[in-house]
Design brief:
The protein contains seven helices and four strands; from the N terminus they run E-H-H-E-H-H-E-H-H-E-H. Helix content is 40%, strand content 18%. The chain has a four-stranded antiparallel sheet with strand order 2-3-1-4. Bound molecules: 2'-deoxyadenosine-5'-diphosphate (DAT) and magnesium ion (MG).
Length: 141
Amino acid sequence: MASERTLVLVKPDGVRRGLTGEVLRRIEAKGYRPVALELREATPELLAEHYAEHQGKPFYDPLVEFMLSGPVVAMVLEGERCIEGFRSLAGATDPTTAAPGSIRGDLGRDWGEKVQQNLVHGSDSPESAAREIGLWFPNLG
Ligand code: DAT
Ligand code: MG
């Protein structure tokens, strides 16, 4: 299968807790390579597009507020099947029950917030990846 790309975010909780290096270590140890990487402040406009599928859900407003609470590290990874591969590294959405061995399972937990603070985002399909990479890195060739 041809190599593919995915968009990964270390969310504000991960940056705040000093876990960017640990996330990158796992990504690189797995064999995926960043082709773009930047410490970035999200904006409400960018997040409205990024999380368009979640608009109207009960956790949407807390999600946007959380994603604006500090810088994120945005990156594009490349590698064969890296979209599903990174989702597997990340683990399930709920960090309390995400499998040990995964980023969310090893490093995340419930903090009693309305929104799950689960350290990382990864695109969930080739269509999402293309859309999200275009949003976060419009000039990437
Ligand atoms: P994922 O990040 O695993 O792709 P998602 O796209 O369904 O999950 O949701 C986006 C983010 O919204 C997720 O990372 C955390 C938050 N979230 C999702 N479902 C939630 C819920 N039921 N309660 C609180 N936060 C939730
Ligand atoms: Mg998602």
